[in-house]
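hey m, so remember when u said the tokens were messed up on ur end? i reran from scratch. heres the input so u can diff it against urs
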Amino acid sequence: MNNNLSQSTEWLNSLVDDVFICIEAQNPMGPLEYLYRNEAEFWEIVIYPTPVELKGGIVEGTVVSPGFSLDLQQLINVFDRVDEINWRS
């Protein structure tokens, strides 16, 4: 998989924006990042929130991965057609 933002396409950045709107973070969350692979007409895209470093108090310097919920129905509605959807956590 590639994580090369400079080679990303406009539609992929738009998809990341659409996913962001469907996320509700339960604690601090960094920006979304993504990995992708394209083979012929098949795209595999992994979008994930980045960890953050907490500031202040006894938690200073602690790096946490954000808990979040994703509204799958809202995300599915972004597409004209969905053949398959998978979730890995």
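this time it looks ok to me. Residues 5-76 form one domain. if urs says something different then somethings off w ur setup not the seq
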